[in-house]
Amino acid sequence: MTDYRTPLSKVRGLGSARSGVGHFIAQRVTAIALVVLVPVFLFQLARHGGGDYEAARAWVGSVPGAIVTLLTMTAAFYHMRLGLQVVIEDYIHKSGTKAALLIVNTLIAAGLWIAVVYSVLRIAS
């Protein structure tokens, strides 16, 4: 007997959504990436920016600066989206509200990421 579900859950079709492990791994990978990327981003920005707006803008517009900035912000926004998704799924019980908040969460994360990509590309050009 390998199925440990109750008879009622079998009838209702309830069970594993089969996405929990992937979500868990994605959160951990983005967290590890941020542990590496955030200090590199801040160190490079402080080193090349030097408190001057034009120097910071020139660093973000350079190829290494753009790459580090985009990698850091991509990991940060994806990690943010995953974390808020867990909070919404765990604490919001109305299905309509939950669905709406999950959509808003994804749209905000995507919108922020698009704004960063546009800004970096605009500065780099």
From TrEMBL:
Keywords on record: Cell inner membrane, Cell membrane, Electron transport, Heme, Iron, Membrane, Metal-binding, Transmembrane, Transmembrane helix, Transport, Tricarboxylic acid cycle
Gene3D superfamilies: Fumarate reductase/succinate dehydrogenase, transmembrane subunit (1.20.1300.10)
Bilayer-crossing regions: 21-46, 58-78, 99-121
Compartment list: Cell inner membrane
Highest taxon above the source species: Bacteria
Membrane topology of the entry: Multi-pass membrane protein
Required co-factors: heme
InterPro entries per the UniProt record, alphabetical: SQR/QFR_C/D (IPR034804), Succ_DH_anchor (IPR014312), SuccDH_FuR_B_TM-su (IPR000701)
Electron transport as UniProt keyword: yes
GO terms of biological process kind: cytochrome complex assembly; tricarboxylic acid cycle
GO cellular component terms given for this protein: plasma membrane
Cross-referenced Pfam families: Sdh_cyt
GO MF, one example: heme binding
UniProt KW Electron transport keyword: yes
Signal peptide start and end residues: none
Pathway(s) it belongs to: Carbohydrate metabolism; tricarboxylic acid cycle
General function of this protein: Membrane-anchoring subunit of succinate dehydrogenase (SDH).
Cross-referenced NCBIfam families: succ_dehyd_anc
PANTHER family: SUCCINATE DEHYDROGENASE HYDROPHOBIC MEMBRANE ANCHOR SUBUNIT (PTHR38689:SF1)
Subunit structure: Part of an enzyme complex containing four subunits: a flavoprotein, an iron-sulfur protein, plus two membrane-anchoring proteins, SdhC and SdhD.
Name the record gives this protein: Succinate dehydrogenase hydrophobic membrane anchor subunit
Taxonomic source organism: Marinicauda salina
Source organism phylogeny: Bacteria, Pseudomonadati, Pseudomonadota, Alphaproteobacteria, Maricaulales
